[in-house]
Amino acid sequence: MLRLPCLLLALCSVASAQPRAEVHKNTPPGQATMRLYEGGRLLFQATTPGLNAVTETKFSPDGKWLLNLTDQGYVQLWDVGKGVRVKTFLAPFARVLNADFTPGSRSLLLPFRGEEGERPADAWAPSFWNLSPLRWAAPLQVARTYGPNGQYVWREGGYSGQVHFSADGRRMVTTSFRRFGGDPAVVWDARSGAHVATIPRLPYPRGAGQIGGAGTVTARLSPDGSRVLVLYVDGRLAEYGAGTARLLKLRGTPAEAPAQLEHFGKTGR
Predict the structure, then answer these.
(1) Residue 245, SS3?
(2) 205 lies in which domain range?
(3) Which residues form a coiled coil (predicted)?
């Protein structure tokens, strides 16, 4: 018997009551089948076009929405209760590495605009979309540079990698996949997209072989969003005022970094 390959994506939780999505690829060849479960109960099954390009799935915190990320330049939004695809957002690039729901499931954050803007460069602007009703809400207010003909050239920071929200949902911090930590971390207002602070690269210690400053790997906000803990590429952890970008202290060791980040995000300590 021919055994077709199967890819299991986005097991949201090991808890049986949590929803989960399974995308079985090449069933039949060139197509895919997506099944959504709640516990052991099948909620719905879909075979709509585009599922074979899915690389990751994410549920909203309330379990009502599902995002499918792809390596073909689009993101699908699904209504879990109705079992329907609500919208396909087209990206100006091929592989979509990230898209996230905000706390409270009020909106989603895309690494691109998701609809036509006033000029072609607007397509690259990371943006919020409100979920109910579904509509474009606001862009991240990223510092951008444009060429003489209005073409997009450069941006400092933005949402091209990871995002983590404060427990109260008011602020978020982004770090970039680009150049493996070459960019600084950036703190934003998680509802308006307004820029709050750019956390600088951390100068290397005196006598170190490197020059300049270390870029970020990841970061976490305290529960109230007032402080941010940043992990740098050289393993150092630094705590800053999230609204001022003022360095408060260095803390921990590289071995302690993962545990300290998670503890800080939950307790602020």
Answers:
(1) coil
(2) 157-269
(3) none
Report the CATH number at residue 175.
Answer: 2.130.10.10
Task: Say whether pTM exceeds 0.85.
Answer: no
What would the two tokens of residue 145 be?
Answer: 């540079």
Contact yes or no for 188/174 (Cβ under 8 A) = yes
DSSP assignment, residue 220?
Answer: E
Is the CB of residue 19 less than 8 Å from the CB of residue 37? Answer: yes
Distances (CA, A) of 148 to 90, 151, 156, 206: 26, 7, 19, 41
Asked if residues 110 and 89 have their Cβ atoms less than 8 Å apart, the reply is: yes
Domain assignment present for 205: yes
- Within-domain flag for 182: yes
pLDDT tens across the length of the chain (269 residues) = 333 334 444 433 334 467 999 999 988 888 899 999 998 899 999 998 899 999 999 999 999 999 999 999 999 999 999 999 999 999 999 999 999 999 999 999 999 999 998 888 889 889 999 999 999 999 988 765 556 666 555 555 567 778 999 999 999 999 876 544 567 899 999 989 999 999 988 988 877 777 778 888 899 999 999 999 999 988 899 999 999 999 999 998 889 999 999 999 999 99
Q: Which of 125, 96, 130, 99 is nearest to 113 (CA)?
A: 125
Residue where the block lists tokens 């970094």: 257
Count of domains in the chain?
Answer: 1
> What are the Cα distances from residue 232, in Å, to 157, 181, 218, 241?
15, 7, 7, 16
Residue 183 domain-assigned (yes or no): yes
